[in-house]
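W.,

You were right to be curious about this one. When I first looked at the sequence I had no strong expectations either way, so I just let the prediction run and decided to look at it fresh. Below is the sequence, 94 residues in total, followed by the output.
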Amino acid sequence: SPCSFGCVYIDGEGEDICIKIGEAIDNLFCKAANNLIQQKTNGASCNVSLECISESCDQQKCGKTYGPISTAINIILILLILFSFFKISSKLKQ
């Protein structure tokens, strides 16, 4: 095999490209020797970031995971921004 310690990827022109284990190309991830798999979508289980299309593996899941506290903070920030925007726009109309 032209790629004994990685995965063979065939590009659009039919050229063989050797991808090292742990690398990704064209939404494919080289998991082990000769084991080129589709990168995973958010929510799928993972071990390393490049296994995921988002290139983020957080708490063994693709994509960022947000706890209840950070979610609540985000909601409060959005509400404050909206409130500020409407307050400013109402002052501009006066």
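Here's what jumped out at me. The chain has a mean pLDDT of 88. And, maybe more interesting for your project: Helices lie at 68-93.

Coffee later to discuss?

I.
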